[in-house]
């Protein structure tokens, strides 16, 4: 209830009630409303600035979720790109070399897509640049997969027309996976166990018990069977087509020079002869007299998962066994 105000009337010498005119009352009312509106505006502005509405909170959660999904997508795209590059590398430098086919030109593998308006439908969005870049990566990967698929179709035709060659090319492990013991030392620079220096290791070391059978990895003719400095007792097989394999540190042989053997034939047994620090089979593959990584030739007796495990183990920068 509003307080009644009085004023002293000097003429009547009495206190009389203050009577406000309608205009004054209207002005006071407008002043109160204006003040209330200003404070309301300030409060609302502060609320919108520092406090989120339920809808804004939901939108922020969705944005955070989308950002996380985008990061996951980018990570997967990078992984797929790495795998694709590895397939291309092996296709050009291993498989096409084997079948004497020309490597696919880089400009064909990495060719872009024509048309400046290809991604026009993705313009004028808040995240247009992001969507366009991601779509371009997916399109490029799709193109590379298509080119690689066509390349494998070509190689499949070459395989069908070169059956004898396929039987001769080294394509299995020299040691049964179930007989392996310990780690595998891979191709490349490794710490030498005797000289204690980093030295080129031109093959793979398969640790296994003495007496474990060693298998020929492809059809061919035995061209050497005897002792060699550093290698100990070793066998060398000429597979033709520029391929030669060497099996070292054997305990004993099962074949002689001049014998024609088939892939999978037992040619000897694991030993610890020569410059060896433990029972194992040192295995080398040569193409046109140049050593190449044998890991690329285990495509006949390993599943994809087994091959990836073998690749990971052989890639470790560990110490060799010879």
From TrEMBL:
A molecular function (GO) term: metalloendopeptidase activity
Coiled-coil stretches: 56-90
Pfam families (alphabetical): Peptidase_M23
Gene3D superfamilies reported for this sequence: Glucose Permease (Domain IIA)
Transmembrane helix listed as a keyword: yes
Keywords, ordered alphabetically: Coiled coil, Membrane, Transmembrane, Transmembrane helix
Occurrences of domain M23ase beta-sheet core (ranges): 199-294
Domain of life according to the entry: Bacteria
Protein name in the entry: M23 family peptidase
């Amino acid at each position: 209830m509003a307080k009644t105000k009085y004023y002293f009337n000097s003429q009547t010498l009495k206190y009389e009630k203050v009577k406000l005119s309608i205009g004054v009352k209207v002005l006071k009312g407008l002043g109160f409303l204006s003040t209330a509106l200003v404070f309301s505006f300030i409060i609302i502005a502060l609320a919108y600035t520092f406090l989120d509405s339920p809808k804004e909170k939901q939108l922020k959660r969705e944005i955070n979720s989308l950002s996380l999904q985008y990061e996951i997508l980018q990570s997967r795209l990078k992984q797929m790109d790495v795998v694709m590059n590895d397939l291309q590398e092996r296709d050009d430098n291993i498989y096409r070399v084997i079948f004497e086919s020309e490597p696919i030109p880089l400009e064909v593998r990495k060719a872009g897509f024509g048309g400046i308006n290809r991604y026009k439908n993705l313009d004028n969005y808040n995240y247009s640049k992001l969507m366009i870049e991601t779509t371009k990566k997916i399109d490029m990967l799709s193109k590379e997969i298509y080119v690689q698929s066509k390349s494998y179709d070509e190689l499949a035709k070459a395989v069908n027309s070169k059956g004898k060659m396929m039987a001769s090319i080294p394509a299995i492990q020299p040691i049964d996976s179930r007989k392996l013991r310990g780690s595998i030392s891979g191709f490349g620079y490794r710490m030498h166990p005797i000289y204690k220096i980093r030295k080129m290791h031109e093959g793979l070391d398969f640790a296994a018990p003495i007496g474990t059978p060693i298998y020929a990895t492809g059809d061919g003719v035995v061209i050497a069977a005897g002792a060699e400095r550093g290698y100990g007792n070793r066998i060398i097989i000429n597979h033709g087509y520029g391929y030669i394999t060497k099996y070292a540190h054997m305990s004993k042989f099962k074949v002689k020079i001049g014998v024609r053997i088939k892939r999978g034939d037992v040619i000897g047994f694991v030993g610890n002869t020569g410059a060896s620090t433990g029972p194992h089979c040192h295995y080398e593959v040569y193409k046109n007299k140049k050593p190449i990584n044998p890991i690329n030739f285990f495509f006949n007796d390993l599943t994809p998962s087994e091959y990836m495990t073998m690749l990971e183990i052989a890639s470790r920068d560990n110490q060799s066994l010879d």
